[in-house]
Amino acid sequence: DPAGLNLETWTPDNGPRVLIRMGSNLDDGTRAIEWQYRIDNAAWHPFTQLRELELRDSVLRNQGLHKVWVRSRAVGAPMSLDPEPKLIELRVDAMAPEIRVVQDGAEHVRVEAVDLVSGDEVMVRLRLGSGETADAVTWDAWTEWQPALEMAAVAVGSSTFLQVAARDEGENVGTLTESLIRGNAASSASGCQCAVEPGVPTPGRGTLGLLLGAVLASVFAGRRARLSRPMTMAFLRTMGGRLCILVGLGAASLSCSSETTVVATGCRARGDCKVVMPGLIGAYSSVAVAADGQVWTAGYLEGNWDLDYGFSYGDLVVGAANDAGAVAWAVVDGTAADEVVDPEVYDPEGFRNGKTESGDDVGLWTSVSLDGEGRPNVAYYDATHRQLKYAHADGERWTVTTVQSGEAGSGYGTYAKLKFIGGKPVIAYHFVETAGAVIKSGVRLATGQDASGATWSFEDVAVDSETPCNAQLCSATQLCLKAGKCAAKKEGCMSCDSGSECVADGMGGPVCAAVRSKSELITYPNEVGLYVSMGVGADGVPRIAYYDRPRGNVLVATKVANAWTNVVVDGADGMGKDDGDKGIGLSLAVGDKDDLHLAYIDGLSEALVFRTLQGGTLPLAVELIDDGLGGKDGHHLVGDDANVFVTPGGEVRVTYQDSTIGALVLAIGTGEAGKLEWKRQTLQQEGFAGYFSQQLLVKGAYRIANWWRVGNPLPVGNVRFVAP
User: Fold this and answer.
1) Which helix (H) or strand (E) holds 611?
2) Is 598 exposed, middle or buried (0-12, 13-18, 19+ CB in 10 A)?
3) What CA–CA distance (Å, rounded) separates 141 from 677?
4) Which of 346, 434, 365 is nearest to 403 (CA)?
5) Phi, psi torsion values for 233, nearest 5 degrees
6) Sheet of 327-333: strands edge to edge?
7) What whole-number distance in Å separates Cα of residue 330 and Cα of residue 317?
8) pLDDT at 517
9) What angle do CA 412, 415, 417 make, to 5 degrees?
10) Backbone torsions φ then ψ of 722, nearest 5 degrees
11) What is the dihedral of CA 202, 205, 210, 212, to 10 degrees?
12) Which letter does DSSP use for residue 142 in this model?
């Protein structure tokens, strides 16, 4: 069903289906045979003894040439596995080629054609005609079909119309009709390259466009490399179906029966738009896996710092990853609403809609989760307004709402974690609030009435009313004392030493006091509620872990009898006396029988450690995962962006970054709980990698998402999926 290849008409039941009937030379009637398959470069599916398989993998919705590998073995005889799997090639293609007519001298034009699936392996034919209008043309005979790459420049003579047909390897045919004035496309030209199979739906203009990034990368890097200059990108707005488009020097009227027509203008018509390149995209990433195996990724679009661009963005981006791990990013929030795009220079239908200016700085600390319909939703931080925001995809468009905001100096939404519990979005996040001289910080829970995020209720999980101030938290009429309180500015002091200012004392009189500078660099805010991590117990109630920076403690919060109980897991002795700095890079996973598994950095030893709360309450011994001393080049800083994951078999795995060398590390714990033996492996990748790691299962296959970046030859970064 071609509708299953279009985002606007995509349903769970209309994707491509492939029936495979299997046999084996091992099948002699004396033993049972089993088969398994994989699609493209994805993991092998489990073995089955069924002789007929119906493949309905979501990857087949991606138009292209897919490879299905099938192999067999005798049941119970693993050594009989076929060493040379059978290859079946499947073509999924419902889109006609794109055609362009380019002036080549005064009396000639040149025809170019390219296809999303067939690339430049396209056949073309053409005919010339004369007439006053498009509906009264006397046409010459069609030329023979020939490869588009071999077609020479066409002498148009006195002809007034040119019609081109292009056919791809899937037998989809597109046509383009151009009116000509001495070889040029006239201002009244008409054309439509939509002559494909009947019944293929025409896409509208409202698709989510979530596959843009990956398609752009593949098309411009490979399939269009032989064109004389970049072609228009309007066809990228849909995965399949027909798309009508006029490509020429201008267009005033188009006609293509009852089909929708998209008219290209400006640089899109000429094919010479400057492309807005992402640069550093996908940091602060998070991932979620749908029931059908589709991986959704959210992240932060920082900017493009190439000297030829120099653009600062600050956007929330979301995208679907294909089986090869390429994320098709689309901007959801952050572009400047009032920016006017010059269509003569940038493509208003392209990446960021052609916008190059920075709007609000949003998209930090993303957390993506899927609702009951399998649609992506994202909680994230708006750094410009220091507020928590939420983006909801309803199947047609994204809706962005502000979950919580406050007065100047307050902040909501860092370290946000989103999960759907009982069909409702639940966000755990860090907050800090200023009320006079008192500063409160901690962890708050926001619960949406439904997936839309239009209405939220709030409850405090942990609150510290003695949070030390910094200069950014105090109001414009206050200064932050080094003693930790905000104090009103005051006049009347005779003279204050360097580093001191005149403030109001407890009685309202003037006094000199040491203050914190507004230029002070704050690496870790001295607040409660950093590194929020959330899991859900068997009872459907959140378990929340967080870092108490002022006291150097790791805490876990659990709701009992409608009240939150906060328990110190590490960082204090048996008498409650703080004895260290534990909790940077904290990650929590809920395991079998509601065991709580935590990984975090011991700030004194700079080691990554692990602890389990058996049953959610009984603390087992603190275990060392990595002390950073295993190499020959000195002490490595390890443990940033830790992620704890429990496999379906109960195995505990922790991923994290070796920040000294920029590497992703996987540690696997085996053995008795509280006495796990940790084996580590460094996963080699291109670039400085290992940021924001997150482990996931995709159709039973284990993968690790992480962010990487390089500085040369261009500053670029993106999310990458790897397997050990």
Assistant:
1) strand 607-614
2) buried
3) 78
4) 365
5) -115, 15
6) 327-333, 311-321, 295-304, 280-289, 716-722, 701-710, 688-698
7) 5
8) 85
9) 100
10) -130, 160
11) 80
12) P
Strands (E), 422-527: 424-435, 438-448, 456-464, 478-480, 486-488, 500-504, 510-514
User: Which residues, including other chains, have CB under 8 Å from residue 386's CB and lie 6 or more apart?
Assistant: 405, 406, 410, 411, 412, 413
Contact between 513 and 483 (Cβ < 8 Å): yes
Q: How many helices (H) and strands (E) does the chain have?
A: 2, 48
pLDDT over threshold 80, residue 521 = no
What value does the CA radius of gyration of the chain take, rounded to a whole number of Å? 30
Average pLDDT over residues 98-108: 78
- Are 103 and 94 contacting, i.e. CB atoms less than 8 angstroms apart? no
Calculate the dihedral angle through the C-alpha atoms of 713, 718, 719, 724, rounding to the nearest 10 degrees.
0
Please tell me which residue, 203 or 295, carries the higher pLDDT value: 295
| Pairwise pLDDT comparison (501 vs 323), residue with the higher score | 501
> What is d(CA 251, CA 235) in angstroms, rounded to the nearest whole number?
18
Please tell me which residue, 202 or 103, carries the higher pLDDT value. 103
Answer whether residue 712 shows pLDDT above 50: yes
Q: For the chain, first and last CA: distance in Å? A: 37
| Other residues' Cβ atoms within 10 Å of the Cβ of residue 438 | 13
Residue 17 one-letter amino acid:
R
Beta partners for 688?
709
Confidence of residue 537 (pLDDT cuts 50, 70, 90): very high
d(CA 52, CA 75): 17
Distance CA 546, CA 585 (A): 10
- For the purposes of burial, counting CB atoms within 10 Å of the CB of 373, is it exposed (0-12), middle (13-18) or buried (19 or more)? exposed
- What tens digit of pLDDT does each residue of 643-683 get? 999 999 999 999 999 999 999 999 999 999 899 999 999 99
Q: Which amino acid belongs to residue 552?
A: G
Which of 86-90's residues contact partners 24+ apart within 8 Å by CB, and which partners? 88/20, 89/65, 90/18, 90/60, 90/65, 90/66
Cα separation, 655 vs 668, whole angstroms: 9
Minimal CA–CA distance to 97: which of 34, 190, 16, 168? 168
State if pTM tops 0.70: no
Q: Per mean pLDDT, which of 80-89, 201-210, 244-253, 547-556 is the most reliable?
A: 547-556
User: Taking residues 411-429, what's their average pLDDT?
Assistant: 97
Of 500, 506, 463, give the one whose Cα is nearest residue 487.
506
Bridge partners (DSSP) of residue 329 are 319
